[in-house]
Design goal:
By secondary structure, the protein is mainly α. The chain has 13 helices and 2 strands.
Length: 366
């Protein structure tokens, strides 16, 4: 009886993991999935650190999420077989080796070993149905996952064309000004607002998407978020333009998306920050950006102090989630985002996600 109950517990854990990973749309945490992902990650990071070039390292890291999903599916199959072994052993008169053979035959529906008696037959049928169910879930899950990934990356690649590689707020605003698009930024902000809405829904429903990397080594979905949000914040705070409410709505949509994803992984952030709370951008960095924009012909506000206050008031809403997510996915170096992600020390081991956040260099005074 004890062996039978232990087998039921193992199979139940697999079913719960599959349901949490594939079926439930809220993106609930799966302990088995967390174990698989966190067990494989150190291996890929170790190989990436020893790669011959930065590009080779990024390509190795890009394999982490897909291969972890494959390993998760394989672990489901193995654990189902392992879970049914004590159940077959408890209800029949078989050795452990024979129970393994019956369990493997039932899961794969190959039938090379037949069950004997009604209890074993019922177990064999239930295991076969469970195996077919897992296959059906994977068949529907993987295409959906890659479709969402493709939609996300199309906008990331588009941003690289318009904002450089890696994308930055500075390059985005300069290029838009040079080609005469700086007066049509509202259309761009509306496009990114929709992208942020889809990002929050897809990456909260399927958290493994967070670790899927861009095809281009210098780009990443997190740093793209930072570039767009910074560009919108700078345009509202520092430029003498007729920026409409769309930029503000886009920033809100962006930081809500980043907070939702960061919250799933336990990344610490203040949900109600004050406008004068410290941020990771230094005042001299902001002033240098404003000087570059002014020298290139953009109309920059004369009141630099007010511009800094306004920018800091926007940035504080997404500063912590942005840097935490950069650390989580080990994003490629990008100004104003992953270049300062060292503040966040990612959790190690297979336990809970527990982040250590280093203090800022010094409090910012406005």
């Amino acid at each position: 009886m004890v062996a039978f109950i232990a087998g039921v517990a193992i199979v139940q854990a697999v079913v719960r993991s599959a349901i949490h990973t594939v079926v439930i749309p809220q993106g609930e945490r799966s302990r088995l999935g967390r174990i698989v992902f966190r067990a494989l990650r150190p291996l890929y990071e170790w190989r990436a650190r020893r790669a011959r070039s930065f590009e080779d390292g990024q390509r190795l890291l890009a394999r982490f999420a897909p291969m972890s999903l494959v390993a998760l599916a394989a672990s489901w199959a193995v654990l189902v077989i392992v879970g049914y072994v004590p159940m077959f052993w408890a209800v029949g008169e078989h050795s452990l080796v024979e129970s393994v053979q019956i369990s493997g035959s039932s899961l794969t529906t190959l039938g090379f070993v037949a069950a004997d008696g009604l209890p074993e037959t019922l177990l064999a049928v239930s295991e076969a149905l469970l195996g077919l169910g897992l296959v059906a879930l994977l068949i529907s899950f993987l295409p959906t996952l890659y479709q969402l990934f493709s939609r996300r990356e199309a906008q990331v690649v588009k941003l690289e064309v318009r904002a450089g590689s890696p994308p930055t707020a500075r390059e985005m605003l300069l290029r838009y000004h040079r080609i005469g698009w700086d007066r049509t930024l509202d259309a761009t902000w509306a496009e990114w607002e929709q992208w942020f809405v889809e990002l929050e829904e897809s990456h909260s429903t399927h958290p493994s998407l967070v670790f899927f990397r861009s095809q281009r080594p210098s780009s990443n979905w997190v740093t793209s978020c930072g570039a767009v949000l910074d560009a919108a914040a700078v345009s509202l705070a520092a430029l003498q333009s007729d920026a409409g409410p769309q930029a503000s709505v886009t920033i809100r949509s962006g930081f809500l998306a980043l907070r939702a994803i960061a919250g799933f992984y336990g990344i610490p952030f203040d949900p109600e920050p004050r406008p004068d709370d410290p941020i990771s951008i230094r005042r001299e960095e902001f002033d240098a950006l404003c000087d570059e924009l002014r020298d290139d012909g953009l109309a920059v506000r004369d009141d630099r102090e007010a511009a800094w206050r306004a920018f800091a008031g926007w940035r504080v809403n997404y500063d912590a989630p942005l840097l935490g997510l950069c650390a989580l996915v080990d994003a490629p170096p990008t100004p104003w985002s992953s270049d300062r992600m060292h503040r966040y020390r990612r959790p190690r081991g297979l336990g809970r996600w527990r982040w250590q956040v280093e203090a800022l260099d010094a409090p910012r005074s406005w």
